[in-house]
Amino acid sequence: MTRPKRPTVYDVAREAGVAASTVSRAFGNPRRVNAATRTHVLEVAERMGYHPSPLATALQSGRTATVAMLVPDIANPHFFGPIRGAERRAAAAGITFILGFTEESADAERDQIARLSRSVDGFVLASSRLPADAAAELAREHNLVLVNREVEGMPSVVVDNASGSAQIVDHLASLGHRSLVYLSGPHASWLAGERWRALSTGARARGMAASRLGPFAPQVAGGGAAADAALVSGATAVVAHNDLLAIGILRRLAERGVRVPEQVSVVGYDDIFGADLCSPALTTLAGPQEEAGRAAVEILLTAGAQHASGDGPRRLVLPSHLVIRESTGPAPA
């Protein structure tokens, strides 16, 4: 049986009544095509079942068919999901995926963007440590999408920290806790500030006392100092910036003979691999991190169409949910 011939750029051009170069620009360089013309070309292409080769589009537009993702700490399991989602979406689109890490440094992040800018079409910045004004300035020159970070005027994908943190407060309040301490992550972490705001707001609404201590290194090694500070605070519930820090806190509390959750309850964020394997298993806030990475690359791939349509930057908020395990329990009498 003879397979039907796939439509070419010339077939689409003939049907749409435009030059083949116009069809190429409509897909590869939309800024150089009138919005109405581009819409007409895309409708014709869709009707005919035409899909341009990513490589051909890249060659015609001067683009590289490559995206890069930068993460602060490549060893943190929290980033495994966003990396996997971003890589899979890039592979499905037939484009090359580059991964880099910035060692929690805004300067390193800025340097990597400068170094790679000639080699990639866009960047996914996960938990970016860049100041907001620096990120906005870079976005004027490069295609950037943020994951787990928001900056006014920039496209972003975040897990819902506000409702998720409220779930944590409600859970602890239901167990009779009247005080909590948030053990914060790095000063430059946007998430640290957002989580504290949501926790403190929820605590006030529930008549709970809330305090913030830190910053602490968002790693297991940071848990020792964080746990000692939490014990001094006298709070009966500890909320750690992330699961790695929470696991380090559990270890330090065990060393000091403090029973969890009988004497202190501990909560983390991110539901990383291993959060259910520590002792006791960790109560933590989970979200669709793989979906966040996939969506960020999708936004990069459609950036040209959004620009041509005049739409503003996309802001996607993904749902979160609390996973209750053995590290939280009734407040001590």
Summary keywords:
Rossmann fold; six-stranded mixed β-sheet; six-stranded parallel β-sheet; 44% helix; 434 Repressor (Amino-terminal Domain); alpha/beta; 333 residues
Structure write-up:
Helix 10 packs across helix 11 (243-255). The longest helix is centred in the middle third of the chain and has 16 residues, at 190-205. The protein is 44% helix and 17% strand. The radius of gyration is 24 Å and the shape is elongated. It is α/β, with parallel strands linked by helices. A six-stranded parallel sheet has the order 2-1-3-4-5-11, sandwiched between helices. Strands 7-6-8-9-10-12 form a six-stranded mixed sheet, with helices on both faces. It has 13 helices and twelve strands. It has helices at 9-16, 20-28, 35-48, 54-61, 80-92, 106-116, 132-139, 161-174, 190-205, 223-233, 243-255, 289-301, 303-309, and strands at 66-71, 96-101, 122-126, 144-147, 156-159, 179-183, 209-213, 237-240, 265-269, 283-286, 315-318, 321-323. The chain folds into three domains: 9-61, Orthogonal Bundle (434 Repressor (Amino-terminal Domain)); 66-158 and 289-317, Rossmann fold (3-Layer(aba) Sandwich), CATH 3.40.50.2300; 161-288, Rossmann fold. The protein starts with 8 loop residues before the first helix and ends in a 10-residue tail after the last strand. The mean pLDDT is 90.
